[in-house]
Amino acid sequence: MIDIIDGALFQRMIIHGAAAINAQKQSINDLNVFPVPDGDTGTNMSLTIGTAATEAKKKPTASIGQAAATNASALLRGARGNSGVILSLLFRGLSKSLKEHSTADGAALAAALKEGVSTAYKAVMKPAEGTILTVSRLAADRAVEAAGENNSVEYVLEQAILTGEAALAETIHQNPVLEKAGVVDAGGKGYLIILQGMLNEMRGIAAPESDSDAPAKEAADFAAMSVEDITFAFDTVFIVRKTNTGLPLDGFRTYLESIGDSLVIGEDDEAFKVHVHTNSPGAALTEAQKYGTLELAKIENMRTQAEDLAAGRHVQSTDDLDAVEEELENGHSDESGIAPAEKKYGVVAVCAGAGLASLFRDLGVDGVISGGQTMNPSTEDILREIAKTPSEVVFVLPNNKNIIMAAEQCVGLIEGKEIVVIPTRTVPQGITAMMFMDPDADVQANIDAMKEAMAGVRTSEVTYAARDSDFDGFAIKQGDYMALADGQLFGTEQDLSALLEKLASAQSQQEAQFINIFYGEDVTEQDAAGALEVFQRLCPNAEIVLQRGGQPVYYYMISAE
Cβ(25)–Cβ(46) under 8 Å? Predict the structure, then answer.
């Protein structure tokens, strides 16, 4: 039994935990009981700890204090969705507790788990039982007891997991929605999968295989990848002119295989070309110069390319170098990558859909982050856009309840910029809040005005059922049209027109003075005009505007004020 762990083992445990949840992320997604297509808890937790695993591979360290600190920093910046943020908080507290340790025994690990729980609970405004918080708290309590029985890290972690599993089973009865659906809490399940992966690493059990074992490709096909599948970030291609033709490439091939994968080497008598995926492209190029003269090189970050592709953004490649160079020469940002303040206020908003993004820009938003339901941006994604905003104060509009916590983690991370998160839960709330921002008012006055304005917005959304469900009195079939009213299930129909008629007749629409209808990417102009006709007919006292939002997932977003 392993009694003490150091930094190197802790990092391997994190890597194993990341692989474990990556392998089971879809089963965690499927625990989502609400049938709207947003079951992304497993994906968010996998992406979050995946950033820590990547950092652990790049920065090996012997000290568990340093390893835990590196892990916590990566988790913070990679946190996605509420589940990912809470996971990062659990490990942030763990890092705080282990800060001065070079190694950790069972008691130290137990204390660290307790500190992680305390950190997470303090950050959540209204902690709910039957969630990851409950599971992690009871697991940590048992860890402290176990350390008194046997001061072994392996024993303590094993006992924490066993108690966590019992606590997870009880979440069904602690949450009425979970009880009706007969499932356990997805976040708690994900946390225990990570802990079990960490324990398995200690016991020498092999981690689940990743896609890094796939056959080599001549070029990076990042369109076929998701970020969590990318073990080695940089697609590196270069050509070397041979100057020592008698030196075989066997040693070079062995070296490249030790620092990457997807290796392809083609050669003739005068030169050779290399393609490799690696986290150390500079090392590959340096080693190559032992065999000849470097003539040409191309390095692209597949992780950022995959993120951009998934979010519908422009995918940067080496073809963009001229534009990047021009921007740098024009001095759009300082050496730190943080734009100098040119005005008092700036705004960053999150939304999905070209029409919605254009509307936010027309309202004066400085930066739009592509994201929303099913594709939550990470804290680092949000932080990057904040850094680019040339203002003293940056207001952030998350526009989705599952993005608010990730946005809040940005507060205080950029020296010299005041970051204020306005907790908008829907895009229409964000649009209204933006309209009430006053460039001449002080910060608190703007916060009050924007929050008051968004509180008066009623948001309805029309989507489809991702799975069969018996939810809140509705017998829902996969593919049914579903309407949500301020996040709560309003009704379902097999006919979209019938559902729109019900929505238009609802009290929030009947009492509204202004109604905005944003139609999504899967709605034709003709169908959108039909929806407008329904609302004009049934809401004669309201001023109604139809706009193309271009949003995925939701056929219509409807705001009533």
Answer: yes
Q: 290 — phi, psi (to 5°)?
A: -70, -20
Among 352, 347, 375, 374, smallest CA distance to 363 is for 347
At residue 311 the predicted structure's pLDDT band, cuts being 50, 70 and 90, is: low
Contact criterion met (CB below 8 Å) for 359 and 547: yes
Report yes or no: 550 and 353 within 8 Å, Cβ to Cβ: yes
The burial class, CB within 10 Å (0-12 / 13-18 / 19+), for 100 is exposed
Burial of 67 (0-12, 13-18, 19+ CB in 10 A): buried
pLDDT beyond 60 at 227? no
The whole-angstrom separation of Cα 537 and Cα 490 is 21
Whole-structure pTM over 0.85, yes or no? no
> Can you tell me the distance from the alpha carbon of 483 to that of 502, in angstroms, rounded to the nearest whole number?
9
Residue 210 predicted with pLDDT over 90: no
Neighbours of 292 (CB within 10 A): 18
Angle at alpha carbon of residue 536, lines to 533 and 539, rounded to 5°: 140
How many angstroms separate the CA atoms of 542 and 561, rounded?
A: 9
Residue 224, pLDDT above cutoff 50: no
Residue 188 pLDDT: 94
Per this entry, what is the length of the chain?
561
Over residues 377-432, the pLDDT tens digits come to 889 889 999 999 999 999 999 999 889 999 999 999 898 899 999 999 999 999 99
Q: Which residues pair with 102 in a beta bridge?
A: none
Residues 6+ apart with CB under 8 A from 550: 353, 354, 355, 356, 520, 521
The kind and range of the H/E element at 274 are: strand 271-278
Q: Which of 342, 526, 361, 510 is nearest to 434 (CA)?
A: 361
Q: How far apart are CA 159 and CA 344, in angstroms?
A: 53
